[in-house]
Amino acid sequence: MAAQAMHDRRSQFVALGLMYFAQGLPGGLAFNALGVLIRDGGHSVSEVGLTGLAFLPWALKFLWAGPIENWCARRSYAYVIGATQWLAIALCIVLSYFPPSTELYWCVAGAVALNLVCATQDIVTNAYAVARMRGRTAGAANAIQVMAFIGGMLAGGGGLLVVHQHWGWTVAVQLMAALMLLLYLPLLLGKRWRRVPSQTADGQAVAAPAGRIRLRDLREHRDLGWAILIAILFKCSGTAVSTLLSPWLIDHGLSVAQAGALQVSNLVSNAVGGVLIGIPLIRQFGDRRAVLVSMCGATLLMGTAWWLQLAQVSDNRVIFAAFALQSLAEGAMFVTVWTLFMNWASPRRPGTDYTVMQCCESLSNAIAAAAIGGLGQALGYSRAFGLAWAGAGVALVVIALSLRRLNGAAR
């Protein structure tokens, strides 16, 4: 029985990794690659802000999280994962015929549609992860989430830019569709990951949903407002900086391929930071204190772009190393925050609770990404980066106060 449980757990980890990697692909396309390609295609810095529209499905998916989770209860996680994956593959193929250089608005619309499908799939993945991985395995599950999603963003962002440099938009996006298919095949053929366990990782019985899942049931959390405040603030400044970073790299003299390589470096550093720093912080300090420690490091390094702009640094080695260090701290922060929310979510509506927190984060990301393009155009890079850094400092103070009032499953 122990060997079977170990094999089942391993298959669940693999399934999570495949799902989150596939969902990261369109995120990398919209949030990393598209801004570079829009600017490289001759469009303005303010039009780069259109990429913020792709955040909206991730911000608003809480509106349909309950029905999707109820659909999973009627059919299965595997069925809904399959339906959304096939639709995402089809949308990738259609999108490949609308390059951002000549079909900007159709391209942005296609990227938003693709992220809508993958955001819906993410509701299912969240429900699966929280239902199976609460308690002792939550840290490992969130490290897998961060690593796999970042891996998908790496392939869909920097990786796509490198392919685009050699073979163009159509080939690059069609290769992304092929990769989505390859990622789905092990899920289609696998059986172990579909099994419903009788108990959680902590040995407790798995709670079944009590009737229909409704969004208003979140009011059962007495600390809901504090949790939402943390979700809104923890990544907002980082998103503003990373969005403005795309046109800054091009204006700083880097080629599209070099900008893509930097994004790859940053995403790899995120994943490494999540595993090597985030998980040890959780084990050493517990959920809440780990969030505070990791956020202090990430906030301190949020001024990297401001410093590079102010010092007019032109050495690419320094630029790569500076952003890699910042990304290590951010990766640790991502793992600690999402472990906090995984243990905070109710086991009776895991997908909806966890998804609402993700949506709060994505909504603030959408606002930050849309606003920073105009601020960069009006204020210049140095002041815009400085403003984002100051916002990170304010967010740290507010989150520190909020963590004291957080109850739920967090420790």
From TrEMBL:
It is a multi-pass membrane protein. The chain crosses the membrane at residues 12-38, 44-64, 76-98, 104-131, 143-163, 169-189, 224-250, 262-282, 289-308, 320-341, 362-380, 386-403. Its main location: membrane. Pfam families: MFS_1 (PF07690). Keywords: Membrane, Transmembrane, Transmembrane helix, Transport. It is found in: Membrane. SUPFAM superfamilies: MFS general substrate transporter (SSF103473). The keyword Transmembrane helix applies. This is MFS transporter. It comes from Achromobacter seleniivolatilans.
